Amino acid sequence: MKIDCIFKAERSHDECEQLIERIDFADSLSGNSNVIVEYERLLANYFKTKHAIAVSSGTAALHAGLSETINPGDEVLVPAICVPMTIAAVLQAGGVPVFYDCQIDSFKPSVISLDAMRSAKTKALITVSMWGYPAIDLQIKTYASEKNLVIIEDTAPGAGTKNSGRYEGTFGDIGCFSTHEFKMISTGEGGFILTDDDRHAENVRSFAHIGFSKAEGSFGFRTGLNYKLSSLQASLGISQLNILDEKMTKRRRKIALWQSYILQNIDMSFFNASADFNHNGYSLCCLINNTEHINAKGLANELYIHGINTDTHRYKNSIVAAYPFVREYYNSPRYSCIIKKDFPNAAALLNRLLVLPCHEAITEGDIIMATKKMSLIVSGK
Ligand SMILES: *Cc1c(COP(=O)(O)O)cnc(C)c1O
Hints:
Blueprint: E1 3-4, H1 13-25, H2 34-47, E2 51-55, H3 58-69, E3 75-79, H4 84-92, E4 96-100, H5 111-117, E5 122-128, H6 138-146, E6 150-154, E7 162-163, E8 166-167, E9 174-178, E10 191-195, H7 198-208, H8 231-242, H9 244-265, E11 268-270, E12 277-278, E13 283-288, H10 296-305, E14 308-309, H11 311-315, H12 327-330, H13 339-342, H14 344-352, E15 353-357, H15 364-379
Parallel strand pairs: 1-14, 3-4, 3-5, 5-6, 6-9
Antiparallel strand pairs: 2-10, 7-8, 7-12, 9-10, 11-13, 13-15
The protein binds pyridoxal-5'-phosphate.
Residues 57-59, 82-83, 85-86, 128, 130, 154, 156-157, 178, 180, 191 line the site of pyridoxal-5'-phosphate.
């Protein structure tokens, strides 16, 4: 692949040296060491939250957050456009996923759809900041608090995105981030949870530490799993957090390049372009203006054949309700089971949406090459 959404994150010499220094300084390499305490302090400080809890993945963060806030059998509102991991965490926590539609040109929930899907059993709302784009605002937050819904933000790829002066992942009750290799803070595998609520923080931490009770100083008082992050990963996380702002600046520059070449050559527009927010630069979401000749999935397929692998190709622009592992939930009488009818905004958006990578390994030459290919494919030449 010449351009690939799957990549190995760049590690500077400095970053590797710092990693060794921190490991030398660590009192242990487990998930209970002084390195973890420092990493969590720095995370809370960066995102301006009261608590940060390091965990072993973004999916673990979601599972721990959901286990703390719902009871088995509770319904959880989840977006039609998200990743299978979001839904898998709901199922693991014993929740029932109920799918809602997005707004016409945003990953934020359509309030009309939330109202239609909500029932007396609904306890939580999950918003998902796909590709680092905003999925929540103060209006959604107000709606959720009026309806007594806990908000869990799946901000896995959204570290650093700012919206109305706040970081994505700090609007709701619990923010869940991933630090997987491809994400903005890249530690190979890993994740963290942000919250301002003391009780949520204590219980989520306990869940991720095999049910360890801080008050009792021992195990066995509640259930949990071992979702601790190791100190090796946290050491990388500290370096990555230090360069997050610089990484965002570099990625935003790549976005500007993609945009300028696309505007010159291709009949496309940009997703959420006019909205007032500061995107972290995770990926660029573009929209095909005229899908008569080819839609986004078709374009992504053609690009793949030409050595360009995008998330659009990797995830096939699927509506999450259509995945076989959630079929029993989508078969519920509250849906017609016709995707375009149940999720009109999400279906229309995915028909046009192409996601372009902006990570370290993408060069200006790649961008020029890819936009030339895209121009020929989109115009049907
Ligand atoms: C990456 C991602 C996850 C999962 O994170 P892991 O660390 O791989 O478990 C969940 N949700 C979204 C939206 C993601 O992009």
